[in-house]
């Protein structure tokens, strides 16, 4: 039951991963809790914490990704602000990788506008049917 008041868009799925050395996924769980509790995302997105398959001999898998499905165009800006705020509070967090439709960008800034532009580029890259590898502007 989505509300019709906001700008509609095709659903967009973004997966966040953090390449952590300890394998415990604490930073990823922290990101999940932060996004899940963000009231600005509550009506416009679905946030899930997903587990990777367990390694051979392990009792269970480790948290692998935070998956978010955006259902309104306004959710992208809210997501960018929320991710930037989370990064500001965790200065020692390894780079955050965002993936959508086979394209990945690395978020290494806590500037909300820069995060929004990265996420928009990520979504735009997935909207094209070209075979461009997405090596746009790094630097």
Structure, explained:
The chain has 4 helices and 5 strands, in the order E-H-H-E-E-H-E-E-H. The protein has helices at residues 26-37, 39-42, 74-88, 112-127; strands at residues 8-18, 45-51, 63-72, 96-100, 103-107. The protein starts with 7 loop residues before the first strand and ends in a 12-residue tail after the last helix.
| Span of the ends, CA to CA | 42 Å
Shape: globular
Identify the strand order in the major beta sheet.
2-3-1-4-5
Helical coverage, percent range: 25-40%
Low-confidence stretches: 1-6, 129-139
Give the oligomeric state of the chains in this entry, treating copies of one chain as homo and distinct chains as hetero: single chain
Specify Rg, calculated over alpha carbons: 15 Å
Report the structural category: alpha+beta
User: How many H/I helices?
Assistant: 4
Number of strands: 5
The arrangement of helices and strands along the chain is EHHEEHEEH
Major sheet, described briefly? 5 strands, antiparallel
Mean pLDDT: 78
| Strand residue percentage | 25-35%
Secondary structure: elements and pairs:
Blueprint: E1 8-18, H1 26-37, H2 39-42, E2 45-51, E3 63-72, H3 74-88, E4 96-100, E5 103-107, H4 112-127
Helix pairs in contact: 3-4
Brief sketch in words of this structure:
By secondary structure, the chain is an alpha+beta fold. 34% of the residues lie in helices and 27% in strands.
Question: What distinguishing features does this structure have?
Answer:
139 residues; alpha+beta; disordered N terminus; single chain
